[in-house]
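quick q for whoever's on today - can somebody do inverse folding on this one?? i tried earlier but teh output was garbage lol. tokens:
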């Protein structure tokens, strides 16, 4: 019975730690770039776009479609980068708290 109580306490402790860490994700940032750095996008851990930087040379009518493609590519790269950081932060926050069950990746539930 003590093992079940200890496990329940660990689960509650993990829930608190997960909630605290999720609240801190707004401070986590990642950047993605495209076109050899001509377009850069900054996102936070809540997967919100914070900033877009576009090189002045891309501001002309004939490159309008390419500019859109570069913004999309940079945004997608930034989101991929932030997903990695989120997973690392959540894994660090819950290290040793979640059960180690082979084949179960608890990092994907965050």
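ok took a stab at it. sequence:
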């Amino acid at each position: 019975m003590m093992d079940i109580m200890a496990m329940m306490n660990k689960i509650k402790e993990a829930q608190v730690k997960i909630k605290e860490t999720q609240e801190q994700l707004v401070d986590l940032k990642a950047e993605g770039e495209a076109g050899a750095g001509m377009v850069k996008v900054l996102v936070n851990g809540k997967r919100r776009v914070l900033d877009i930087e576009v090189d002045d040379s891309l501001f002309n009518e004939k490159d309008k479609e390419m500019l859109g493609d570069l913004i999309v590519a940079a945004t997608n790269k930034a989101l991929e980068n932030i997903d990695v950081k989120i997973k690392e932060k959540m894994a660090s926050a819950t290290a040793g708290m979640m059960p180690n069950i082979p084949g179960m990746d608890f990092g994907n539930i965050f």
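fwiw Helices lie at 2-24, 64-93. also The first strand starts at residue 29 and ends at 34. so keep that in mind when u check it
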